[in-house]
Amino acid sequence: MPRDEIILEMRDIVKTFPGVKALDKANLRVKKGEIHALIGENGAGKSTLMKILLGIYTPDSGEIIYKGRPVNFKSPGDALTSGISMIHQEISLVPTVDVSENIWIGREKDFQKGWLIDKNRRYQATEDLLRRLKIQINPRTMVHRLSIAHMQLVELARAISYDSRVVVMDEPTSSLTDSEVRLLYAIARELSENGVSIIFISHKLDEIFDICHHVTVMRDGKYVSDHPTDGITKDQLVTEIAGREITALFPKEEAEIGDVVMEVKQLSSAGVFSNVSFEVRAGEILGFYGLVGAGRTEIMRAIFGIDKLDSGEIWLGGKQIRVKSPADAIGHRLAMVTEDRLRLGIIPNLSVTLNISLAYLKTVTRFLGFVNRSKETGDAEKMVGALNVKTPNMRQRISALSGGNQQKAIIARWLQTNPTVLILDEPTRGIDVSSKAEIHRLISMLARQGKAVIMISSELPEILGMSDRVIVVREGELAGDIPRGSASQEKLLQYAFGTIDTQGG
Amino acid sequence: MNSTNRSSKWKAKFLNFVMDNKALIILMALCAVGFVATNGLFFSLTNLTNVVRQICTSAVIGIGFTCVIASGNLDLSVGTMLGMLGVIMAMISKTALGFWGALAVGIAAGALCGLINGLIGVKLKLPLFIVTLASGQVFKGACYLLSNTSPVSGIPPAFRAVGQGYWGPVPIPIYIMAAVGVSVFVLLNMTAFGRRAVATGGNREAARTSGVNVDQTIVLVYVLMGVCAAIAAAIMTGRAASAQPPAGQGMEMDAIAAVVIGGTPLSGGYGKVGGTLLGCLIVGVITNVLNLAGMDSNWQLVAKGLLILFAVGLDVASTLYVNNKMRRMRKE
User: Fold this and answer.
1) How close B211 gets to chain A, by Cα (Å)?
2) How many CB atoms sit inside 10 A of residue B314's CB?
3) Which residues does B contribute to its contact with A (CB < 8 Å)?
4) pLDDT for B96-147, tens place per residue?
5) A194 touches chain B (CB under 8 A)
6) Is A369 in contact with B191 (Cβ distance < 8 A)?
7) Interface confidence (ipTM) of the complex
8) Which end of chain B is more exposed for a tag (fewer CB within 10 A), N or C?
9) Which CATH number is A6-242's, of 1.20.1250.20, 3.40.50.300, 3.40.1190.20, 3.30.300.20?
């Protein structure tokens, strides 16, 4: 139960990264024993704020007051010993050793007996800890044998074993089943009863109303509002999450929308997405919106043959096609600019030319597999000119270019294949403003040329400005299909957060 | 202002040149050491020819290995594969098939060994250095079984010529080495296959997403490695005039050293065939100078190991140093 005492306060936190103001006077006040939800759309600054609390980032300005004293943690370890811990979405346990060893890792000294470790004493301590938390796990179980939920509980137990007074949970229920979620809730409530505060980052509104006492809304790195959860409705909350004035619209140029080019029917992949059906037309820009983790990327990866589909059909130009690998997809004139440019896009050691020619190598290959290098370089140069990729020369390693120019080079790679359907996954994430505008102009131009464009984006202004139609994905299913005329921030967020249930515009 | 700008530009150019030609610079330094340590004996024409001839086998292996490493893999079976292929070729050359038949069978067998290595790796999704660590043992056993653990001698003169003969003033193995080097250079830099191999090594996921058949590419790289192993086995067998079953053992380590000294990163992503040749020369020069200096052969192994470590360490350290320097210069 929340007490009146404020245990943690973050005041006017500002953090800038090169080119972006990630946090602009963010505030957060957490009471002792409170379960406090932190909510906002993708990129609102929730994670950055928590990373500052944990000492992973240093703030440019602002102060953190914990237990009445200003603090400034140097590292997560520093925060941990002071009683603040974080449970990340990704599990950070050592899978090959047992539960007890994981909980006390780094603190073996506490159980030392001469040169050796007194394991029995450590198992005893683990049992006591787990019993206190009402977690039923055998301290001797190897961690890799546990379910994800139990791994999270072990992380939680480890946090508590440091006598944490504030525990941050980053989307803790995203990979749990219903019964596991209930178990986690019960333990969170138990901790709250004992005066531990929990900061709960979540996209699930139901969850927030279920277990949180208080909610703070963030938007564009700023504090928006905070309310006790029994003093606000879901709809009001969504309005506050959305309520941004759109200052930077990305107007799409008009293009004539033609026939259906690609249609997918009932695509499913167990545990990832199900019953996905949609169509995209020539000249159309189809936006895909959804919260991170909703399954947008996974749907596109499966269509493009990167991941396997369990069932469903893909129709292209009236014919059903089979796509078992990206090579098949390219053969059918699909193209996909993947998200995460560094990991999935560029080949860092190779030159700009070779990066651009990679997907259409077949076209410039002559007898015996020899590449027509003058045509290859010529074509790449034309693309570099057309897309305004800034590079000192064509032999430059792509890793030396700026993010925006790398992205333009990757788009060039895919335009070389002359696709009919172009899928872009977060095409402008993490790149500078002017490259962003250029890429938007380019996408408009491609639509005008009659290509069907599917654009995934987490940025509402981008989605609203560029798309002829927006599909909202929520928890692996298509939640809404909204034409440009009736799309608004509130509407998209209502679909994304699930406060509207039915399909349709 | 202008002049400092210009001088820093020249400095950057110089550092870039050093970075791109490290192997060459190390080699020149070693030669200088060799010259002094052997009172000039090192630079006699006979000795230089000797050095080059001695590295032909390891160079052919190293050139194949450059592709393997460029594609982001390792092949720890090449050494014993070479021994086995040598025995197979020597035995067949004594039959009616003769030398050319033996060479054809040997190359086919090498390609097959590579094919099997590659297929096991990509189909069972095993790391290829583990697969080849295991298959290397198989080749070793097969080699001893085939040869009954004794050398296979009495090979025809045409076979001996491959290792010992001359065309004009130049030993035949040097032509072979040059031909393999040029072919693989062309393959790696001018064909679609080469593009795919380096792309696979540079970023496997991105390559696959861009339509590269990553599995097929890796298998082909291993086939190429097998063919190179067969050619190297032919040279080595010809030179010794017999197939020694333990021949080639440990050569994969020399090859890795040569490739890395030559500037191909162990993590893959590009391959420098010329650099590998220089790397082989460096290892060859070290051996030669120690030989001329009259060092005991067991001590030579110790010294060679330490020198390779030193060369690779110098390589890494200089890269770090120059990168830091360049970054500082860019900041200014």
Assistant:
1) 4
2) 15
3) 190-193, 195-196, 198-199, 202-203, 205-213, 265, 269-270
4) 999 999 999 999 999 999 999 999 999 999 999 999 999 999 999 999 999 9
5) no
6) yes
7) 0.82
8) N
9) 3.40.50.300
